[in-house]
Amino acid sequence: MRILTFTGKGGVGKTSVSAATAVRLSEMGHRTLVLSTDPAHSLSDSFNLPLGAEPTKIKENLHAIEVNPYVDLKQNWHSVQKYYTRIFMAQGVSGVMADEMTILPGMEELFSLLRIKRYKNSGLYDALVLDTAPTGETLRLLSLPDTLSWGMKAVKNVNKYIVRPLSKPLSRMSDKIAYYIPPEEAIESVDQVFDELEDIRDILTDTVLSTVRLVMNAEKMSIKETMRALTYLNLYGFKVDMVLVNKLLDTQENSGYLEKWKGIQQKYLGEIEEGFSPLPVKKLKMYDQEIVGVKALELFSHDIYGDTDPSGMMYDEPPIKFVRKGDIYEVQLKLMFANPVDIDVWVTGDELFVSIGNQRKIITLPVSLTGLEPGEAVFKDKWLHIPFDLENQGQHQRTREMHKA
Ligand SMILES: Nc1ncnc2c1ncn2[C@@H]1O[C@H](COP(=O)(O)OP(=O)(O)OP(=O)(O)O)[C@@H](O)[C@H]1O
Ligand SMILES: [Mg+2]
Description:
Layout: E1 2-7, H1 14-27, E2 32-36, H2 43-47, E3 56-59, E4 62-66, H3 69-76, H4 78-90, H5 95-101, H6 107-121, E5 127-131, H7 135-173, H8 175-180, H9 184-204, E6 210-217, H10 220-235, E7 240-248, H11 259-276, E8 281-285, H12 294-305, E9 320-325, E10 328-334, E11 343-348, E12 351-356, E13 359-364, E14 378-380, E15 383-389, E16 403-404
Parallel strand pairs: 1-5, 1-6, 2-4, 2-5, 6-7, 7-8, 14-16
Antiparallel strand pairs: 3-4, 9-10, 10-15, 11-12, 12-13, 14-15
Bound molecules: adenosine-5'-triphosphate and magnesium ion.
Residues 8, 10-16, 38, 42, 134, 246-247, 284, 286-287, 290-292 line the site of adenosine-5'-triphosphate (ATP).
């Protein structure tokens, strides 16, 4: 089983590359499902076929779906919504408004993610291809399990130790209190969804199963956005195994008034190859027409993969490593484009926190490191090295200073 996620800036060719990858996978005999998680779906335009919120067969071994998280949200979150709507309405919020307020930020992404888990576990597919929304939203989607992990634990504990044990005795005290106590089925739904979210994180950060492929154009803003995306993907522990530079003008042919663009693209191409190394960078030409329909996608897929199988691992290096060198134990984190000044490292209990700007990663430390303070973190060759000295504990003070190697 393989899960391939394609992401990149708006309009760079994510949907075309995802659809082409899926076509190719199906041709190689893998039972494939391509899912669009972009609320502004265009997978059906790419295949030039109508698609719905359930898998539609495109051809032998190939299904496609445009996920509609609202359908799942209504089904799985119904009891929670009913409860909150009741509370909001008691506070004077009108019906429709109260209904809307029960959809928390991130809910739509959450239910798209649950679909991924469902199809992964269904046994019906050998490969899932995710065609996602432009970078920002996708990072939000992919970081959701991490972002929510602290809150999830807290809510689950509150449910377990406070809400559940107290709900019965409190409800007996007065009708007014009983009114505000969530019903068992709502507590159950919250716990269940949070449990599933943990499973999803395990699926997406399983570096044998899941990889992310970055699609970009040879343009300044596309490159910058992709570099930022890569930093955050690395931070969250997603393995990126390929970079695709799409819509390159053919250097052999005359491009008319676009001639100047060729020079610009070639200049940026050099920067991309250097910057994203050692990730493989695939160059894809700009066609003289749109890529629509299975036939065109098939052609495009040959440009992308040649004779190779898209389900292969294009670059195999885990984004987080735990390395022991004598008495020094190092947590190493690949952060290709991070600025050392923005990185912050600290430990609380058995959790190592690494933050870049407003994004934060929590890494659970091995038991042997619990209680140790990290030494001075060093940024070297695109890797952040965080040392823990097993012998001389206590010599190191917690550090928030970063030093360039
Ligand atoms: N190499 C290419 N040559 C010619 N046209 C291309 C190429 N790649 C993509 N296109 C066309 O560019 C348009 C945008 O591509 P696509 O929808 O795949 O991008 P996207 O990144 O998914 O966009 P969005 O961010 O809106 O989801 C489509 O009309 C597609 O057919
Ligand atoms: Mg798209």
